Amino acid sequence: MIFTRHTIPNAIKAAARAIRTFFSKDPVIASAGVQSIRELRCSACPHLVGDQCSLCSCFVSVKTSLASEACPDGRWSKETRFSKGLIPKRSVDIHTGVSRN
Q1: Per the confidence metrics, is the pTM higher than 0.70?
Q2: Taking 80 as the threshold, does the pLDDT of residue 64 lie above it?
Q3: CA-to-CA distance for 63 and 56, rounded, in angstroms?
Q4: Cβ contact 73:18 at 8 Å
Q5: Is residue 8 within 8 Å of residue 18, measured between CB atoms?
Q6: Which of 7, 37, 75, 96 is the right S-S partner for 57, CB 3.0 to 4.6 Å?
């Protein structure tokens, strides 16, 4: 388990985003298909250590299930009522999650 000075603040921010999303019209929990693709992209990421991301110290199994979350490495975006949360901020192979950059 990775604990850095960012672990607790990042968890609090993620909880705040989920609560704020709860009161909006956006989904709180990502759809099953979106969760699966996010997990696939994370599994191919070099920043994954166990079930944690070494960039943000989040637990990937939790972060990928929250619609309001986005990958700190740009591999997937947040899910809203207008998007499915799969658009990477950089070029990523959609099947393997491996960066093309």
Answers
A1: no
A2: yes
A3: 10
A4: no
A5: no
A6: 7
